[in-house]
Specification:
The protein is 73% helix and 0% strand. With 267 residues, it is mainly α. It has one domain (48-264): MetI-like (MetI-like fold), CATH 1.10.3720.10. Helix 3 (63-95) packs parallel to helix 7, helix 3 runs antiparallel to helix 9 (175-203) and helix 9 crosses helix 13 (255-264). It is globular and about 70 Å long.
Length: 267
């Protein structure tokens, strides 16, 4: 009986989690002149379906596609650069010996736990002084050095076999050789998991573009959908579905590798 109730509880949680997603997809294909009242059961599932929202959003408004590809560019560039910075940083925290290493890693943890709103003003002042506001670099540069990826990779590297690294040190003193030939092949599951997490984080960013960018041509799709741009309910729901597609596809395609990467992390 305990196993039955446990499975029933998990099933209920899954249904509650998926219900908003299903309703968003269904209502994106419906004609919506006003926002549906989800408190009434008869309004949960639309009766008429068409592609008006998608047509108005993708054909009549060409800005949406531009914002979509901005999101793709920001998410990919930031994620790749962040991993390139985080891998050597994590290797230093895990394997190198230098003074104040524990204090510096503790600072990384504190910075990672800070709310985004705390760092917005210092980043804004720095970007303003460097004359990078209202450019794509104002979005990319601060996110490249975010500490979350370095923290996860450090936790994973702490679980690597010390004997393997010690044997490599007997063959070569080159840190680059050890990192690329010994460490990186063992990091592949973890790097893939970090890539998915970081891509999803940058794909969903809203506050940074709204504060650092003024020109609509540089803003991502998440920022466009969050603003009151005169969109109808059908267009907002259609945009939400389009916005979900890359993350859902990425998760479904790398689901098995993501599970392996999460199991291998020593958190």
């Amino acid at each position: 009986m305990g196993n039955f109730f446990r499975k029933a509880g998990l099933l209920l949680c899954a249904v509650l989690f998926l219900l908003p997603v299903v309703l968003t997809v269904l209502h994106s294909f419906a004609v919506q002149k006003v926002e549906p009242d989800l408190f009434y059961l008869e309004s949960l599932f639309p009766k008429k379906f068409d592609l008006t929202g998608y047509y108005d959003l993708l054909v009549e408004d060409s800005q949406v596609l531009w914002n979509f590809w901005n999101s793709v560019l920001y998410a990919l560039v930031i994620t790749v650069l962040n991993i390139l910075v985080s891998v050597p940083a994590a290797y230093s925290f895990s394997q190198a010996k230098f003074r104040w290493k524990e204090a510096l890693f503790f600072f990384y943890i504190v910075l990672m736990m800070m709310p985004l709103q705390v760092t917005l003003l210092p980043n804004y002042i720095g970007l303003r002084d460097m004359k990078l506001l209202d450019t794509p670099y104002s979005i990319i540069l601060p996110a490249v050095f975010a500490p979350f990826s370095a923290f996860l990779l450090t936790q994973y590297m702490n679980g690597l076999e010390k004997s393997c690294l010690e044997a490599a040190l007997l063959e070569t003193k080159s840190v680059t050789t050890i990192l690329t030939r010994i460490v990186l092949p063992q990091l592949r599951p973890c790097i893939l998991a970090v890539f998915i997490f970081e891509f999803a984080e940058q794909w969903n960013m809203v506050e940074q573009p709204n504060i650092y960018l003024k020109a609509e041509k540089w803003k991502p799709l998440s920022s466009f959908l969050s603003m009151d741009g005169g969109l109808t309910v059908s267009e907002v729901l259609a945009g939400s579905v389009i916005f979900m597609i890359p993350i859902v596809v990425l998760y479904l395609y790398f689901h098995d590798s993501l599970e392996v990467g999460l199991e291998s992390m020593k958190l």
